[in-house]
């Protein structure tokens, strides 16, 4: 059956109503014989089924757990996320390669997969937009029934010759107290039935002592493992100091608008501590070093890659700002903002978190006043920042109220001695309290 024909000079191109098959009719003016050639158009392949596989992982990741965002029968657009694969370092999003409908899930929710494992089957083509348009077409029809509720009330019932029918019952005389005891059981059943639902509600209001179990995701398991390894391996010791934030706060207040106008990013306190840490690490290279337990050697680095701890709903991640020694405040703020945005969107790659020679953890954003951070292995030290609070301090022999912050340095005492740790922390204190120290290289 021919759906339509299109003249092509002496030839005719005919399309069958089935959609995918076309016939090309060649005619020779010197003969009455027609040659028919059949071929398929791309329409026939719109409904092909694709098998989407697990993308390749980074070298240090071998497997992950699948968490489905879509179900069988769901319509997806191109590049829409169908599932996430949670590894011990990050989550990998798996987008749909084309628009279509999910036909089959080949891995259960929470199942383990490796690189190249088939994940789901996708039926491409016209089914996707039609499925999306169906609910829209049915929505007005479903909303149509409510208008009858606005119809005028029914007419009053006809009155009889005797008179109008009363619409209210006559008042019931009160029942004497002694008569309540003589009522049959059947008479009090409705009262008991009415009171029955109230009993569970009153019991539920007291609160049920229930429990729930949730499987630990791979990232949380890996964090727990690494922290325990650090505790078992490092001889951790913590030293403390306090920083007067008056000068850095005044500098930020004076230049934040100009800084934002020029660099298109806000000036925060984190960049001052990152820059101060890079300066102090250059002054005390042992804090930037690490022990190689395999070869029993100390590895000194002549570069500074600082890991910044970022809290996410799935766990703590530590993306790395690389080559901080060559950055200024604006470069650091841009790097922190970029990594923080990727962490919030769950777009951090393994490469963003590999390496790092030193870590800074800012518990002050949550209101922390004091704490001892744990080393992020295989590093040898970590700086803990805390909240800024007004406290009375002695300044020039007088008591003044200043914005103060406690800072803590946890270090591996196998490699770093107390003198080096205290000197490092005091160097950070001096740079943050007076940024001119950076200019004078003091």
From TrEMBL:
Major location (coarse): mitochondrion
Gene3D superfamilies assigned to the protein according to its UniProt record, in alphabetical order: 2.40.50.100, Chloramphenicol acetyltransferase-like domain
Composition bias type Low complexity, residue spans: 128-142, 192-203
GO BP terms, alphabetized: L-lysine catabolic process to acetyl-CoA via saccharopine; tricarboxylic acid cycle
Any one annotated GO CC term: nucleus
Coiled coil ranges: none
UniProt region (Disordered), positions on chain: 118-180, 192-211
Keywords noted in UniProt: Acyltransferase, Lipoyl, Mitochondrion, Nucleus, Transferase, Transit peptide, Tricarboxylic acid cycle
Compartments, as annotated in UniProt: Mitochondrion matrix; Nucleus
UniProt cofactor(s): (R)-lipoate
First-level EC class: transferase
Function: Dihydrolipoamide succinyltransferase (E2) component of the 2-oxoglutarate dehydrogenase complex. The 2-oxoglutarate dehydrogenase complex catalyzes the overall conversion of 2-oxoglutarate to succinyl-CoA and CO(2). The 2-oxoglutarate dehydrogenase complex is mainly active in the mitochondrion. A fraction of the 2-oxoglutarate dehydrogenase complex also localizes in the nucleus and is required for lysine succinylation of histones: associates with KAT2A on chromatin and provides succinyl-CoA to histone succinyltransferase KAT2A.
PANTHER family: DIHYDROLIPOYLLYSINE-RESIDUE SUCCINYLTRANSFERASE COMPONENT OF 2-OXOGLUTARATE DEHYDROGENASE COMPLEX, MITOCHONDRIAL, DIHYDROLIPOYLLYSINE-RESIDUE SUCCINYLTRANSFERASE COMPONENT OF 2-OXOGLUTARATE DEHYDROGENASE COMPLEX, MITOCHONDRIAL-RELATED
Record family assignment: Belongs to the 2-oxoacid dehydrogenase family.
The name this protein goes by in its record: Dihydrolipoyllysine-residue succinyltransferase component of 2-oxoglutarate dehydrogenase complex, mitochondrial
Gene: DLST
């Amino acid at each position: 059956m021919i759906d339509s024909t299109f003249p092509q000079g002496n030839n005719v191109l005919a399309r069958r109503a089935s959609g995918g098959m076309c016939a090309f009719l060649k005619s020779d003016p010197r003969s009455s014989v027609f040659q028919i050639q059949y071929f398929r158009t791309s329409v026939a392949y719109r409904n092909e089924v694709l098998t989407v596989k697990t993308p390749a992982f980074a070298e240090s990741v071998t497997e992950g757990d699948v968490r489905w965002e879509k179900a069988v029968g769901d319509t997806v657009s191109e590049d829409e996320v169908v599932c996430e694969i949670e590894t011990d370092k990050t989550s990998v999003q798996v987008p749909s390669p084309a628009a279509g409908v999910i036909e089959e899930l080949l891995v259960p929710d929470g199942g383990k997969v490796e690189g190249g494992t088939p994940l789901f089957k996708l039926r491409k083509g016209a089914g996707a937009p039609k499925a999306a348009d169906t609910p829209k077409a049915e929505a007005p029809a479903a909303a149509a029934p409510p208008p009858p509720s606005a119809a005028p009330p029914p007419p009053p019932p006809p009155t009889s010759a005797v008179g109008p029918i009363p619409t209210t019952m006559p008042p019931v005389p009160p029942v004497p107290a002694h008569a309540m005891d003589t009522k049959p059981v059947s008479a009090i059943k409705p009262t008991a039935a009415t009171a029955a639902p109230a009993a569970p509600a009153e019991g539920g209001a007291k609160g049920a002592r229930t429990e729930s179990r949730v499987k630990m995701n791979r990232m949380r398991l890996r964090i727990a493992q690494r922290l325990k390894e650090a505790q078992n391996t490092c001889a951790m010791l913590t030293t403390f100091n306090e920083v007067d934030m008056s000068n850095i706060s005044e500098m930020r207040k004076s230049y934040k608008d100009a800084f934002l106008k020029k660099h298109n990013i806000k000036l925060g306190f984190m960049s001052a501590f990152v820059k101060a840490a890079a300066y102090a690490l250059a002054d005390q290279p042992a804090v930037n070093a690490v022990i190689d337990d395999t070869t029993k050697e100390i590895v000194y680095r002549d570069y500074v890659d600082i890991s910044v701890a970022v809290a996410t709903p799935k766990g703590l991640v530590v993306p790395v700002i690389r080559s901080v020694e060559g950055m200024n405040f604006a470069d650091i703020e841009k790097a922190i903002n970029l990594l923080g945005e990727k962490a919030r969107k769950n777009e951090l790659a393994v490469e963003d978190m590999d390496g790092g020679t030193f870590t800074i953890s800012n518990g002050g954003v949550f209101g922390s006043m004091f704490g001892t951070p744990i080393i992020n292995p295989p590093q040898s030290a970590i700086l803990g920042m805390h909240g800024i609070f007004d406290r009375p301090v002695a300044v020039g022999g007088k008591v003044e109220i200043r914005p103060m912050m406690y800072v803590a340095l946890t270090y591996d005492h196998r490699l770093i001695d107390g003198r080096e740790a205290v000197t490092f922390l005091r160097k950070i204190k001096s740079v943050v309290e007076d940024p001119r120290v950076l200019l004078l290289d003091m």
